[in-house]
Amino acid sequence: MATKTSARPKSTPAYRCSECGWTTAKWVGRCGECQAWGSVAEIGQVSAKTTAAATISRPAQAIADVDASAASYRPTGVGELDRVLGGGLVPGAVILLAGEPGVGKSTLLLDVAARTARGNRRVLYITGEESAAQVKMRAERIDAVAETLYLTAETDLGIALGQIELLDPDLLIVDSVQTLSSAEADGSAGGVTQVREVAASLINAAKKRHMTTLLVGHVTKDGSIAGPRLLEHLVDVVCQFDGERHSRLRLLRAIKNRYGPTDEVGCFDLTETGIEGLADPSGLFVTRTKDPVSGTCVTVTLEGRRPLVAEVQSLLAKTANSQPRRATSGLDSARTAMILAVLQSRAGLDLSTLDSYVATVGGVRLSEPAVDLAAALAIAGAKLDRPLPSQFIAFGEVGLAGEVRPVPDIARRITEAERLGFRYAVVPASPNGPGAVPPGFRVWQVSTLTEALEVAFRAEG
């Protein structure tokens, strides 16, 4: 007589990536999410389950009947932050702010917290890296003390959620998400499982209460956001806050933004008394000298949609070594080496026995190809020992054939240069021309690097 056996759910082995938390039913050598090699390991047996349909308490709503006023922007009072976010903070939005240690993340968010609290709104600041007294000392130093700004030093997620339940804040700041841990999840604070649980709980609380949430995130050695990549998918906005350690300039960029643009850049000046927005930071990147100096050239670069005037400097020195030194600061070393090769092969400038040092002013980093022409003219000026004319700018991409290629927004760059007092420009030749040129501003359009050198160093006037 055959015995009847009860059906059991099918069980399959599961594997998880230790870098981003991606799971798969079978082992693979490379993660399908973050593309990391050797990071997928077995996490045990997982039973395949199905979810039954639940009773609907709130039916779906026609999109035309949805009230969009609940998601309107609320300005923070920090103009540069509002520019990057698209207008301000959105109720219920979860924003992740990442950056290197000491770049000013906590200072910026403490300033935002104080400005929000002074607008008759409750703000809860949860710190897991400092004590409440340490945060109070910084708040006094930057004048960020407000009556409705509440502080708590906590690393337990359950207690943090209890504080949110008790206070019901309009704005929540967590510094940082990697320091909180949940007793319901395995692993230590900052691990993949813990960060996923903490982020999911905070996002759920933010959406349920229409509470804007700002999360501080750590970064790895290569500058990427630490923790699972799922964290960036869950939040609404991801901002990167960076800057040179030896410079006061800080740049804020939106990598992801569900409520606004991702091509805006905010500029800040970090001082001992706090952090201030820079509506016009171009003066930080240009050297003001009475007489022109050889080996320098001013350019206009675009950071997102924002034109910034910056200066490229070059110095050439004789060397006794068989292989000259090529040093750069603030510029891409590979592109600078390419420009040196183009100047030697296409323009006839012998640089084979000279050490070259090319740098930007003010610690700004220029990665746009439009900076190529200014770097080339600065190097050529150092070689010829001839300064460029005063009130002169140049921008354009230089190709290996010696051609000068068009770059976007030529008219906007010229307008920004004219606003800052420049009167002459060498720009790439474009089928549509340079656009509307301001009165009294002269523009030369060039197609090759040789033409640009001719205009900059040999043309009279």
From TrEMBL:
Described function: DNA-dependent ATPase involved in processing of recombination intermediates, plays a role in repairing DNA breaks. Stimulates the branch migration of RecA-mediated strand transfer reactions, allowing the 3' invading strand to extend heteroduplex DNA faster. Binds ssDNA in the presence of ADP but not other nucleotides, has ATPase activity that is stimulated by ssDNA and various branched DNA structures, but inhibited by SSB. Does not have RecA's homology-searching function. Plays a role in repairing double-strand DNA breaks, probably involving stabilizing or processing branched DNA or blocked replication forks.
Q: Where is the RecA family profile domain?
A: 70-219
Q: Which CDD domains match?
A: RadA_SMS_N
Q: Which stretches does the entry tag as region Lon-protease-like?
A: 355-461
Xref: HAMAP family: RadA_bact (MF_01498)
Question: This protein is called what?
Answer: DNA repair protein RadA
- Note the PANTHER family from the entry: DNA REPAIR PROTEIN RADA, DNA REPAIR PROTEIN RADA-LIKE PROTEIN
- Residues forming the motif RadA KNRFG motif are 256-260
The gene name reads: radA
